[in-house]
Design a protein that fits this description.
The chain starts with a strand and ends with a helix. It is globular and about 110 Å long. The chain has a six-stranded mixed beta sheet with strand order 5-6-7-3-8-9, sandwiched between helices. A six-stranded mixed beta sheet has the order 14-15-16-12-17-18, sandwiched between helices. Strands 2-1-4 form a three-stranded antiparallel beta sheet, covered by helices on one side. Among the domains are: 1-79 and 182-275, P-loop containing nucleotide triphosphate hydrolases (Rossmann fold, 3-Layer(aba) Sandwich); 328-527, P-loop containing nucleotide triphosphate hydrolases (Rossmann fold); 531-568, no CATH class. By secondary structure, it is of the alpha/beta class. A hairpin with a 2-residue loop joins strand 17 and strand 18 (521-526). It is built from 20 helices and 18 strands.
Length: 647
């Protein structure tokens, strides 16, 4: 056991947030914390991290256990460059390396040999620090930094880029990269998948699956939870309950528990009703009074089960269509978008939408997906190309940044100002369906959480009754339960849908076709996200086969003059592609073996400097030090070769 939270209770004024929460974290466990927005998940992480104090309860931590906590949307604030900030994680190793270089110079100084005791002490110090430096991974610092920065989407960035010039999302990704480099024993992450594109999300999942420590993660990304966690801790109605398995398994187990508890409760209620009926009928009869009194005593001793609580109240809404559009809804031809003085984001984009289709637009962060949607709704001008809407198309647009909301309005005013013809009772009913009841409707929009703002925007969109919905990251800020309600509403929607999402679970459930946006246009794939991944893999294999065939044909022509190879079969091409991949892997493995060998040789030479027969011989010291320097130069070159094979 690395960590245990016991009996944690937290109140804010008279509002209870957490009540007697228990959480145990064992070595290498992967725990997902789930619950509706406002359930107290982030509060619990802050208590464990020591940022706030609980009203009751204790945190027990194993000796020397290091905790790492990354709050939601906590972007790095620093005047350093990307590289210098990442190096700060290894400041202790940088200092140790400087100390080793100083000790090496001292050992190589002939004047030090005049004092045998001082010379021996210096060598012992060097040997001790050298062993510690190697054990702490001192030789792999640069490789670790480059690997994680590349995985987190900074591979194309200049590492000299000042952090303060980055966007908020980029600084958040950099904060995540930094805590991964710190590699604490217990890694606590609050919504780490925010601001990550699909490629980076996939890399992060793979990295965390192999993480050496334990992980506690708050996430509304169901695909991420299914891929990573081995246990779910649900916080509901201020209390916690633990389930073994990933998110999908948790849903099954929770439903099964509710069914079992409901049956036990109903069975007991039936028994109690029978006993009460017998007592009522027989308590005054002379012949049966004793039996009735006995039943009453038995009834009083029954440990009554509490009625199982069903699901928490969920948002409830549907998207209706007021007017049916024509069959051809949208035609985009050779569209190009960009910004003045910043160049083109993308060009040659073409996309056709027919009535009733559901199409997902995906692509890496910064490629221009949101920009494309803004052009379609008239908020931006294109650089080139055109798009045309079909007949009777009524647009509804959901902006992930909720810029269409007036922060000075109350929730009630926000809807009523958009639909002044509706009665107040109708507006309040709609808001009630989106979980705004009572005094909630008088809250200012500026005071709302991200999830609450999202629900207000969806309420406005629902009332529009549009036949064409354009949604930019509609599941952002929504808790797991609200996402399911949104999916259900969109599944029943009879209009046309074009949406952007990084939520792979949502993509799998909703998308009928995927358009992947790139700098030079769009690629179109039938099916959902899993179908898209499978097709992309097939394309990659075909390209590898084609490249292998071209290489083989070139080699054949160069080696045999006018002789014809007669055409290679697909089987032969596939074999060649696999051979090429095996050769690449063997080369990579050989380079990694060379790195390990050089690091071992360097360590042995450094240890050699501590031997009396060497440190007492000035010439031997100089020769050994020269060998160390030469091998370190080779090690640096070998690391560069390793990075090339990883590209």
């Amino acid at each position: 056991m690395l960590l245990q939270a016991s009996g944690i209770t937290k109140n804010y004024g008279v509002t209870n947030i957490l009540s007697n929460i228990n959480l145990m974290v064992n070595d290498r466990e992967r725990i997902g914390l789930v619950g509706v927005n406002g359930a107290g998940k982030s509060t619990l992480l802050k208590i464990i991290a020591g940022e706030i104090r609980p009203d009751q309860g204790q945190i027990f931590k194993a000796k020397e256990t290091r905790l790492g906590y990354l709050a939601q949307n906590s972007g790095l604030q620093s005047d350093r460059s990307i590289w210098d900030e990442m190096l700060q994680v290894f400041a202790h190793l940088i200092d140790a390396e400087k100390e080793l270089r100083d000790l090496e110079q001292q050992i190589a100084d002939p004047t030090l040999m005049a004092d045998d005791k001082k010379y021996a002490d210096t060598l012992n110090r060097y040997a001790t620090r050298s062993d510690w430096f190697r054990e702490q991974g001192g030789y792999e610092v640069e490789t670790k930094i480059k690997s994680i920065l590349h995985g987190m989407g900074f591979g194309s960035f200049s590492f000299d880029t000042p952090i303060h010039t980055l966007s908020g999302g980029q600084r958040t990704r950099l904060a995540l990269a930094r805590i991964l480099l710190q590699a604490p024993d217990v890694l606590m992450l609050d919504e780490p998948t925010n601001h990550l594109d699909i490629e980076t999300l996939t890399w992060l999942e793979d990295y965390l699956r192999g993480y050496a420590g334990a992980i506690v993660v708050v996430s509304h990304d169901r695909y991420f939870l299914d891929a990573l966690v081995t246990n779910i801790v649900e916080i509901e109605r201020h209390q916690s309950k633990r389930y073994t398995g990933n998110y999908s398994k948790y849903i099954e187990l929770k439903a099964a528990d509710y069914e079992i508890e409901s049956k036990h409760y109903e069975r007991q209620q039936t028994e109690i009703a029978k006993m009460e009926d017998f007592i009522r009928k027989n308590i005054v009869r002379a012949t049966t009074t004793k039996r009735a009194q006995s039943r009453r005593k038995a009834l009083e001793k029954i440990d009554r089960l509490e009625k199982p609580l069903g699901d928490l109240k969920k948002a409830s809404f549907t998207f209706e269509v007021e007017l049916t559009s024509g069959k051809e809804v949208l035609q985009i031809s050779d569209l190009a978008m960009g910004f003045p003085n910043k160049g083109t984001l993308f060009k040659n984009v073409s996309l056709d939408l027919r009535r009733g289709e559901t199409v997902a637009l995906i692509g890496p962060n910064g490629i221009g997906k949101s920009t494309l949607l803004k052009a379609l709704v008239g908020q931006m001008e294109s650089l080139n190309g055109s798009f045309n809407w079909g007949t009777n198309v009524k647009l509804g647009y959901y902006d992930q940044e909720q810029t269409g909301l007036n922060p000075n309005n109350t929730v009630l005013e926000e809807l009523w100002s958009a639909y002044p013809h509706l009665e107040e009772s109708r507006i309040r009913t709609v808001l009630g369906n989106f979980l705004f009841s009572g005094e909630d409707v008088l809250k200012k929009v500026m005071s709302l959480s991200g999830g609450e703002k999202a629900r207000v925007s969806l309420a406005k969109l629902m009332l529009l009754k549009a036949n064409m919905l354009i949604l930019d990251e509609p599941t952002n800020h929504l808790d797991l339960f609200s996402k399911e309600v949104l999916e259900s509403a969109l599944m029943d929607y009879e209009g046309t849908l074009l949406f952007i999402s990084h939520d792979r679970y949502f993509l799998n459930k909703m998308a009928e076709r995927i358009a992947e946006l790139g700098p030079t246009g769009t690629q179109h794939f039938l099916g959902n996200y899993d179908d898209y991944v499978e097709k992309k893999q097939e394309i990659a294999e075909m390209l590898a086969e084609a490249a292998a065939a071209t290489s083989k044909e070139s080699a054949t022509n160069n080696g045999s003059g006018d002789k014809s190879s007669g055409g290679s079969s697909s089987f032969e091409d596939n074999k060649q592609a696999k051979r090429d991949e095996r050769n690449r892997q063997r080369k990579q493995e050989q380079i990694e073996a060379d790195i390990a060998q050089l690091e071992t040789e360097i360590a042995e030479l450094e240890h050699k400097l501590t031997l009396p027969e060497v440190y007492q011989d000035y010439v031997a010291v100089q020769e050994t030090q020269t060998q160390i320097d030469e091998k370190k130069s080779r090690l640096a070159l070998t690391y560069e070769q390793w990075e090339e094979t990883m590209a």
